[in-house]
Amino acid sequence: MDLSFTEEQKAFRAEVRRFLDEKLPKRLSDKGRLGQRLTKQDYEEWHAILNEKGWLAGNWPKEHGGAGWNAVERHIFEEETTAAHAPRIVPFGLAMLGPVLQKFGSKEQQDYWLPRILNGDDWWCQGYSEPGAGSDLASVKTTAERDGDHYVVNGQKTWTTLGQYANMIFCLVRTSKEGKPQEGISFLLVDMNDPGVTVRPIVLLDGEPEVNEVFFDNVRVPVENLVGEENKGWTYAKYLLTHERTNIAGVGFANAGLANLKRIARLEQSGGRPLIEDPLFAAKIAEVEISLMAMATTNLRVVSAAAAGQAPGAESSMLKVKGTVIRQEINALTKQAVGPWAMPFVSEALEAGSNEGPVGPSYAMSATPHYLNNRKLSIYGGSNEVQKTIIAKAILEL
Ligand SMILES: Cc1cc2nc3c(=O)[nH]c(=O)nc-3n(C[C@H](O)[C@H](O)[C@H](O)COP(=O)(O)OP(=O)(O)OC[C@H]3O[C@@H](n4cnc5c(N)ncnc54)[C@H](O)[C@@H]3O)c2cc1C
């Protein structure tokens, strides 16, 4: 398999770089570089800039307003935007719901919701997980009972990322208790401003309320908000997860993290010389860099096969495990590199423009919060333990 980029792909990379030079606001890339918090407005600003260029929905076909990129082009875009410290594209509407509506939604749903996703009229969040339904997603208990031309929804979702910003949530709900658990699930679009919806923040290890609990108490949802057929939601849910897991390797993020680690290790001192020259620390960096290079090559193989029309198999589980472990290792080394500066945590310093400066150099202030926040990587999107079982069954045939 030839993994080198074609002339066309190289030209595309150059075009993405030019675009980022011209259009990525310095205010946003500075925040990314320093690991400062992004606000809802920051994400919306970046989405609008990409949308104007027609690059917001790289994975959508052109007929729906997307860029229609293949997997290699999406990979190049991802590499360049992460290297430039651009905000990530919030995935819920664009990478998750959009493809589901395009494949299973009615024409009315497509015409109404898809342009709204592109224009940023709605902020979507993902209502899959529940307190008793995470890895075992098919055991969702939130119910939706038909009452005339409405469903009445009762129950609870949890770990809802950025639900505090959202006005819409796509939910897996139980519409039947007959048969196998997977057979009684439906896919419903719920307006979070409707009476009976309560959002409660969950504060994570880094002190950030990034995720939420969402409660539904007799929420009336119009039947036209059902996607596809009643009780067929499991099929749509699985289709969505295949989109959630694209770019799962996070090569761009790992590259950016590694570059940051090396920069810090050049600035920090150990025994009177730069930390990067300490043989023990240099060996640790080399080890993680070798793992990253090997994983990036596997990722290119998968991306290249996907561009040729092949569906990724258990390789995406391998990439999930390796990609997240590598990013967590880079976080751990970055925390080690800043030494005692990893201890004081001034939460306000992570807000751009705050009067509270960090204790220690500015490059150190996000080391601990990132280390703590990225514990999530090996849990969400299918936990690493579950991925290992998939690998054991599909590749090792155990
Ligand atoms: C930061 C963060 C953001 C999230 N955002 C969202 C979101 O926006 N929307 C949403 O719907 N969900 C979201 N999730 C939920 C996420 O998908 C679940 O946390 C994940 O599916 C794991 O489920 P659980 O937390 O219930 O853990 P459990 O499934 O209870 O697992 C607990 C432990 O047991 C292990 N385990 C479970 N089953 C098996 C098995 N069969 N074999 C081996 N080990 C197993 C797991 O690996 C884990 O270590 C988010 C989670 C986090 C941490």
TrEMBL record:
Its EC number is 1.3.99.-. Gene3D superfamilies: Acyl-CoA dehydrogenase/oxidase, N-terminal domain, Butyryl-CoA Dehydrogenase, subunit A, domain 2, Butyryl-CoA Dehydrogenase, subunit A, domain 3. Residues 125-219 form the Acyl-CoA oxidase/dehydrogenase middle domain. Its cofactor is FAD. Residues 6-121 form the Acyl-CoA dehydrogenase/oxidase N-terminal domain. It comes from the Bacteria. Residues 231-396 form the Acyl-CoA dehydrogenase/oxidase C-terminal domain. Keywords: FAD, Flavoprotein, Oxidoreductase. GO terms for molecular function: flavin adenine dinucleotide binding; oxidoreductase activity, acting on the CH-CH group of donors. GO terms for cellular component: plasma membrane. Belongs to the acyl-CoA dehydrogenase family. This is Acyl-CoA dehydrogenase. It comes from Limimaricola soesokkakensis.
